Amino acid sequence: MKKNIINTTAAPAPIGPYNQAVMVGDFLFVSGQIAIESTNGTLVTGDIESETKQVMHNINAILEAADLNFSHVVKSTIFIKDMNNFGAVNTIYGSYFTDAFPARETVEVSRLPKDVNVEISVIAAAH
Question: Which among 89, 72, 86, 53 is positioned nearest to 127, based on CA atoms?
Fold first, then answer.
């Protein structure tokens, strides 16, 4: 089984020993994204809405690098530091999908990389 590595400068570089995404067959596995701006490496902080928008922007850039978009997403996982922010995250996340929403789980965690408030990973199918 061949793995194709997907990396783009339009999304932040990995901060560890992993790639932004790996394509295996028709499936793209996108690593968890946090709110880092790709242009300057700045961490977006301040409010959960800004963080979530940056996370979704990063995921979009990676999907585009694989010639995919949010309509191809079949599964997502949201890691959130405070479930009280679920409503705001859910609203922004949902705005990136038009229909046929992917399967998903949302998990509250005690800590995330760089102490961010939200991290999202997705799996997309090319066909």
Answer: 72
